[in-house]
Amino acid sequence: MQRLAVFFGLIWFALAGNVGYAQDSEVVVKIRPDIASVEVNTADGPVTIERIQDTEHEITGYFAQTSRACPPFCIQPFQVAEGVATIGELEMLDLLADDQAMVIDARTIDWHAEETIPGSLNIPYTEIADRLGELGCTRTGEAWDCANAAPVALYCNGLWCGQSPTAIRAMLREGYPAERISYYRGGMQSWKILGLTTVEGGL
Fold first, then answer.
1. Per-residue pLDDT tens digits for 50-87
2. In angstroms, rounded to a whole number, what is the distance separating the alpha carbons of residues 139 and 23?
3. Which residues pair with 27 in a beta bridge?
4. 79-84 LR contacts (CB < 8 Å, sep 24+)
């Protein structure tokens, strides 16, 4: 069964429209045993997502911090809302590969501008309820019609960050279908702990 899952996974990767998967046997630190890097098409051109190859590398700076005052930086629940899937890094890469899906950086623009996941779109949690039109919803009077809403994944700074959970709850209040929302709970901190590529965000 596991071999079959890997086989179909490789077929899917080969057919993915906007992501290229490299299988370099020379790479020491891979994303998966069969995937060395991922090329993502972004508004600024293709970006290769890979892991830092230095096996002695340690995370430093802001995302190395383990303890922040709570509130406001409290540990977020694993399930942010009923019907919303919580995902990890491999699922994020799958969504980046999906032409119909969108990965949303729900942090404020200053965070996004400094560092973000390649291929993600910045819609701050404070604005998302008014910007659902960018995600496939249409205005019907004062309400949103989200029948044609895109599958989306939202993230923020990490397991202690409430920006993407707040955004998700706002989307649900406006009628966005829960089954089309994913929550990358690990956010930037987990992405960086795994040594995955980041880029400066566009303003």
1. 999 999 999 999 999 999 999 999 999 999 999 999 99
2. 44
3. none
4. 80/164, 80/165, 80/168, 80/169, 80/183, 80/185, 81/168, 81/169, 81/172, 81/178, 81/181, 82/178, 83/177, 83/178, 83/179, 83/181, 84/168, 84/172, 84/178, 84/181, 84/182, 84/183
Residues 173, 161, 186, 197: is their CA dihedral positive or negative? positive
| Strand bridging mode 121-122 / 102-105 | parallel
Whether the model clears a pTM of 0.70, i.e. scores above it, the answer is yes
Listed in sequence order, the residues at least 6 apart from 69 whose beta carbon sits closer than 8 Å to its beta carbon are none
- List the one residue out of 92, 90, 89, 88 whose CA is nearest residue 101: 92
Report how far apart, in Å, the C-alpha atoms of 120 and of each of 51, 60, 71, 116, 188 are.
Answer: 18, 23, 27, 7, 12
Q: In whole angstroms, give the CA distance from residue 3 to residue 10.
A: 11
Rounded Cα distance between 133 and 153, Å, is 16
Give the Cα separation of 39 and 130 in Å (integer): 31
Report d(CA 58, CA 23) in Å as an integer.
Answer: 25
| pLDDT for res 99 | 87
- The secondary structure element, H or E, covering residue 145 is strand 143-145
Residue 157 is encoded by which pair of tokens?
Answer: 């700074």
Range with lowest mean pLDDT among 9-18, 89-98, 148-157: 9-18
User: In angstroms, what CA-CA distances link 70 with 126, 160, 195?
Assistant: 20, 9, 27
Give the residue among 132, 150, 128, 117 at the shortest CA–CA distance from 42.
Answer: 117
